[in-house]
Amino acid sequence: MVKKNKMKKVKGNQVILSFVCLVLGFMLAFSYHLTKKEKEASKITDMEWEKTLDLRNQLIDQEQANRELQKELNQEQEKVLEIEKQLAKEAQVYFNLAEDAEKYRMYLGKVAVKGKGVQIILNDGEYEPNEENINNYLVHEHHIFKVINELYISGAQAVAINGQRLSHNSYIVCDGPVITVDGFQHPAPFVITAIGDPEVLESAINLTGGVKDQLVNDNILFSIEKKDEIILDPILGN
């Protein structure tokens, strides 16, 4: 009986020991498995951190490169701006030269001109039977010179006599009742047209004691009229 009780006690202890071993083994296995997962998770986290750090460093490098490129761009833009300013100055110079050339061609009579101006008519005075010298009521070249000179002084851009354009080297010669302009004869009345500011030209001609008064005192029939449009053709030939 005692022997049977001892055997039962031993078997019970074995069962308990087995159960304890089983539980212990399960705990060890679970602990190992959990530790393994934590290590793997830690390893993945470290890799992601390194990857993030690498990307951040790349981003910093790229931003630095962008700043350098922006500096270069700003420098190049400044160069372009300076070039544009220089080109603008050169363009203005060329424009002024072209404008001057156009003015010279106009003064030389190389191009047709159109604009506002005045028309002056000079005609021989009325015949006086008692006047011994017929030249005392005829228009002479010095009368025409006075008008033309006053017009040029007052800013006339182009002048013509009876439609014949005058140039910088034109000559006018009196030949009895006619005048010769650059080899072409013109009878009275002499129509002098000038392109310029009509108000200025008319005022200059009509000054008291000026050209108009001098011509009237010489018995010359004189008239002046402002014109909204005058067209003068270029001078033909050389």
UniProtKB/TrEMBL annotation:
Signal peptide bounds: none
Coiled-coil intervals: 52-93
Domain of life, source organism: Bacteria
Keyword Coiled coil among UniProt keywords: yes
Pfam family, one: DUF881
Keyword field: Coiled coil
Family listed: Belongs to the UPF0749 family.
Stated name of the protein: YlxW
